[in-house]
Specification:
The complex is a heterodimer. Chain A folds into two domains: 182 residues, Rossmann fold (3-Layer(aba) Sandwich), CATH 3.40.50; 69 residues, no CATH class. Chain A has eight helices and ten strands. Chain A has a six-stranded mixed sheet with strand order 6-7-8-3-9-10, with helices on both faces. In chain A, helix 4 packs across helix 5 and helix 7 crosses helix 8. In chain B, helix 2 runs antiparallel to helix 3, helix 2 packs parallel to helix 9 and helix 8 runs antiparallel to helix 9. Chain B starts with a helix and ends with a helix. Chain B folds into two domains: 30 residues; 214 residues, MetI-like fold. By secondary structure, chain B is mainly α. Classes of the chains: A alpha/beta, B mainly alpha. Chains A and B meet through strand 6 and helix 3 of A and helix 6, helix 7 and helix 10 of B. Bound molecules: adenosine-5'-diphosphate (ADP) and magnesium ion.
Chain lengths: 267, 251
């Protein structure tokens, strides 16, 4: 079980000269096997939320459970994929993919079998001995995904994983993420700043308020994962709905004039 | 292989250029104190298999031991300082206070403490290399992207594993660069300390030949010093190519 449950979650950073409240009383629950997308204004605490769920940042107050137990540190079956992919340039593709297994002292033979399978799944089998610098952006992202697959992650946390990629590669990888989720049925929490990506990959889309982050709204998106959903009117309508919600949260300052509610304000 | 051939060709070309420049300068100056490359190389060939070789070995040993010792002490310490804000709070002011002090001024103290053998020379070069590598290792450890550390920690890595998988490999290229830069300093300090006090080493040989007005021999010693520097530099290149293979890929 890899359900996530947060209650009254507050996290503040001690900045150089002042305290920064990143999250303030956030409540969110994600069911086991559910794909959720999180979207919100820049700096509202999305990365902080993922780091907390990954066990890398301790909450100041509130409750945070994964699989029913409080998060106290990194968990065996949680994988985190960062925007810059979190790859180590000094390790080969195979070594990067197997790093989680190595750190968890999985025996070498099992490690290489699982790495080979994961690299195969993301189409990087031929590049096992290359270094990340020899890969394209899309391939690096596939490698980050392979690391999570090798770990057999039940909970996949992704922080704007595709934002550095060009549009075509991004769409290709969105398809791969969807395929892998359909195949494995893991719990998936995707932070994104792309409205289309959120609707394509989130069965529920959580909209956060500006900092300190709280849940502003949740968009139910039951058709997510249906074949051809991306080309249906329902998809566009859902995107428009999400865009309206974001504008109301002041996340779309530069397109304020298009927002139906003119009161969207910067903070 | 092609890489190696290009490199050798580069060295040959550079040597020819240097010798030509040297010859030109010798003609222009026209002094006994600056013999041309031909008599100097002759003297080098003659003395190298004779009384110069033991001095080269002594000097080489001193500088290699010092650089190894300096880095073995400085790299771990610098990395720990760079990664721990609490240790850094104490260590950084100490480094800032002591780094700009020219360590060479301690040579008289070291001579009094350790006599005129190898020990004061090794101590002085070690001290200088230590500080250069310490500062580099600290800066390199501080510059490591947070994402690299976070991603490895998210995989469950403890402090030691973060060092092994992230901090050490990330800092190594910078450490090698600092080491290569230090070879120049190390050899200069070696020359200085051997020529000030002592009875052996290339530095002593050069100053001794100078005293005997044996300018060709003196230049044989100078050539030996230069060769020692090139050999050290190339050894570091080789070691880096082995240890930091990935860094070549991204260039
Ligand atoms: N390590 C940190 N130290 C101090 N402040 C931080 C740190 N990390 C994030 N913050 C601040 O916390 C807030 C939330 O950051 P983050 O979670 O990265 O937002 P998001 O991912 O939604 O853009 C921001 O205002 C950011 O400046
Ligand atoms: Mg972020």
């Amino acid at each position: 079980m890899a359900d996530v449950c947060a209650h009254g979650l507050s996290i503040a950073y001690e900045g150089v000269d002042r305290r920064v409240d990143a999250l303030d009383g956030l409540a969110l629950s994600v069911a086991d096997g559910e794909p959720v997308a999180i979207i919100g204004p820049s700096g509202c605490g999305k990365s902080t939320l993922l780091l907390a769920i990954a066990g890398l940042v301790a909450p100041d107050s509130g409750e945070l459970l994964v699989g029913g137990t409080p998060v106290t540190g990194p968990r065996l079956h949680t994988a985190l994929i960062l925007q810059d992919f979190g790859l180590l340039p000094w390790k080969t593709v195979a070594h990067n993919a197997g790093l989680g297994l190595e750190i968890r002292h999985v025996a070498a033979a099992e490690r290489s079998a699982r790495v080979a399978e994961a690299l195969d799944r993301v189409g990087l089998a031929e590049f096992a001995n290359a270094y990340p610098a020899e890969l394209s952006g899309g391939m690096r992202q596939r490698l980050a995904l392979a690391r999570a697959l090798a770990l057999d992650a039940h909970l996949l946390l992704m922080d704007e994983p595709l934002s550095a990629l060009d549009a075509l590669t991004r769409e290709d990888l969105q398809g791969l993420l969807l395929d892998i989720w359909r195949q494995r049925g893991h719990t998936s929490i995707l932070v994104t700043h792309s409205i289309e990506e959120a609707i394509f990959l989130g069965r529920r889309v959580v909209v956060l308020t500006p900092r300190p982050g709280r849940v502003a709204a949740i968009v139910e998106n039951p058709e997510m994962g249906d074949p051809g959903f991306r080309d249906t009117p329902a998809f566009y309508e859902r995107c428009a709905e999400l865009r309206r919600l974001l504008a109301a949260e002041g996340a779309l300052e530069s397109v304020q004039s298009e927002a139906p509610h003119g009161e969207a304000s910067a903070s | 292989m092609r890489h190696l051939r290009n490199r050798l060709l580069g060295y040959v070309g550079a040597t020819v250029l240097l010798l030509a420049g040297w010859q030109l300068l010798a003609w222009l100056v026209g002094s006994q104190a600056l013999p041309g490359p031909v008599p100097a190389m002759e003297a080098f060939g003659r003395t190298f298999s004779g009384d110069l070789l033991p001095e080269v070995l002594v000097s080489g040993w001193r500088v290699v031991v010092s650089m190894l010792l300096g880095s073995v002490l400085a790299v771990p310490l610098g990395l720990v300082i760079g990664r721990s804000p609490r240790v850094d709070a104490v260590a950084a002011p100490l480094i800032f206070l002591t780094y700009p002090v020219p360590k060479i001024v301690f040579l008289p103290v070291l001579l009094v403490l350790f006599g005129i053998g190898s020990l004061p020379k090794i101590a002085l070069i070690t001290l200088i290399v230590f500080f250069q590598i310490l500062v580099t290792a600290r800066d390199a450890a501080r510059a490591i992207p947070a994402g690299s550390v976070l991603s490895v920690r998210s995989l469950g890595a403890d402090r030691a594993q973060v060092f092994r998988h992230v901090v050490v490999p990330a800092a190594l290229p910078d450490v090698f660069t600092a080491l290569r830069i230090s070879t120049g300093t190390a050899i200069a300090v070696l020359f200085f300390s051997e020529s000030i006090a002592g009875t052996d080493g290339i530095g002593f040989y050069i100053i001794d030949a100078w005293g005997r007005i044996a300018y060709n021999d003196m230049f044989a010693g100078i050539i030996a010093m230069a060769v020692l520097g090139v050999v050290l530099y190339e050894l570091l290149e080789l070691a880096e190519a082995r240890v930091c293979r990935w860094a070549r890929v991204s260039r």
